[in-house]
Design brief:
Length: about 400
């Protein structure tokens, strides 16, 4: 049947063409009067009717109708059958490297247990021709309309109905360098529900089962992350060797999909489930993760250094005294979100400064009507750090 009635609204089943040449199954809201115009009033009685929508992912025992509800999760158009998948094996070994078996476990869990929480998979490399985008396109060819490939602004938009019900949410060339971006992804990666919002509609609380896959050319600070982060699986993908380059790689991978998915469907998962994200922190730890953590730390070091340098020059003093709260406030004004713990760690480990307790003088600019701003000062009490001019201003800057 070409049309459906979900609740009190009518929809038409359509195949929307994509740039890739493929077609995506979509439900387009349709006017009841137009259906009568095209097919006659009696046609309405033949239209399938459901009480509402549900989105329940299942690849092993898929059902389009669950009780009296229409399942929005798409049935996958892949016929599983035995066969060889040499190009796929070679490609996945290139992507996951030494963690190839772990990568197969990730893909197996995604296929067999789509409701299972999984780590945030990040493929990074500053090199070109690595296959990161090809990997996203390959996943898209498997999960079809149940996966979306977004841009940074799509994820940041308040309207999220286009991706909030997907199994896989990929962001290519990701640069989510705001703290709220990282917090949002972290929270969603372990969330069981989420408020979805579309233009012109109220927010709706919905079941959330999405997994994030991020790709970036920036290895050091494409997203905010701290030392104790356990949710990110960061893999540095090397460039493809000249002899391994295949201009028709995506076509070859698509041809092998029925064979690879047949294998994945029968394959036993080797890694035992030990955490709510299945894998332990140690299992998914990589040097690329350490590089990302250190890159974030370096970014905070630079921001604090710039703030101190600017203030030393502005106030024309030999030293400054700031508490952790003072610095967090100054960072916030520069749109850098940090907490007292991370700032304290940077000051002690990178600046090698220990705090002192007592009364300290703090400078500030004060505006007087019709006059140029002048430097004021006020006394405060508590724990503070001392920043000396000689440690931040070079001889050239002094001159």
């Amino acid at each position: 049947m070409e049309y459906l009635r979900i609740g009190v609204e009518y929809f038409k089943k359509c195949k929307m063409p994509l740039n890739s040449g493929d077609k995506l199954n979509v439900l387009v809201k349709w006017n009841k009067g137009e259906i009568i115009t095209d097919h006659g009033k009696d046609y309405l009685e033949r239209i399938e009717k459901y009480d509402g929508f549900v989105t329940i992912p299942d690849h092993l025992n898929y059902k389009k109708v669950i009780d009296t509800f229409y399942n929005r999760y798409e049935e996958l158009d892949i016929e599983l059958k035995a066969g060889e998948f040499l190009e796929t094996t070679k490609f996945l070994k290139h992507i996951f490297g030494e963690q190839y078996d772990l990568g197969l476990d990730y893909l197996s869990i995604l296929w067999k247990y789509p409701n299972q929480i999984l780590p945030i998979l990040c493929l990074v490399s500053s090199e070109r021709k690595t296959g990161k985008t090809t990997f996203l396109n390959w996943l898209k060819s498997i999960y079809q309309g149940n996966m979306t490939i977004n841009k940074n602004e799509d994820f940041r938009s308040q309207f999220n109905s286009d991706w909030s019900s997907k199994l896989l949410i990929a962001i290519d060339e990701v640069l989510l360098d705001k703290k709220e971006d990282s917090e949002r992804i972290k929270n969603l990666s372990t969330a069981s529900s989420f408020k979805t919002e579309a233009k012109g509609k109220d927010k709706v609380e919905a079941y959330f089962f999405g997994k994030f896959v991020l790709c970036s050319n920036n290895e050091e600070n494409f997203i905010k992350i701290d030392n104790n982060e356990i949710r990110y699986w960061v893999i540095k993908v090397p460039a493809l060797k000249d002899e391994d380059e295949n201009p028709d790689l995506e076509t070859s991978l698509r041809k092998e999909l029925p064979y690879f998915m047949y294998y994945l469907n029968l394959r036993a998962i080797k890694t035992k489930r030990r955490t709510r994200m299945w894998f332990t922190k140690e299992q998914i730890h990589t040097e690329a993760l350490d590089r990302l953590i250190n890159g974030n730390k370096t970014n905070l070091v630079n921001e604090i250094g710039e703030i101190i340098l600017d203030d030393l020059i502005r106030f024309e003093v030999e030293e400054l005294k700031y508490s952790l709260g003072d610095l967090v406030e100054k960072l916030s004004k520069s749109s850098i979100r940090a907490n007292t713990f991370s700032v304290s760690k940077v000051l002690k480990e990178c600046f090698k400064i220990e705090s002192k307790n007592g009364t300290y003088k703090k400078y500030h600019l004060t505006d007087i009507p019709d006059k140029i701003s002048y430097v004021g000062e006020s006394n405060h009490r508590g724990r503070y750090f001392i920043f000396k001019r000689e440690d931040f201003i070079s001889d050239k800057q002094k001159g």
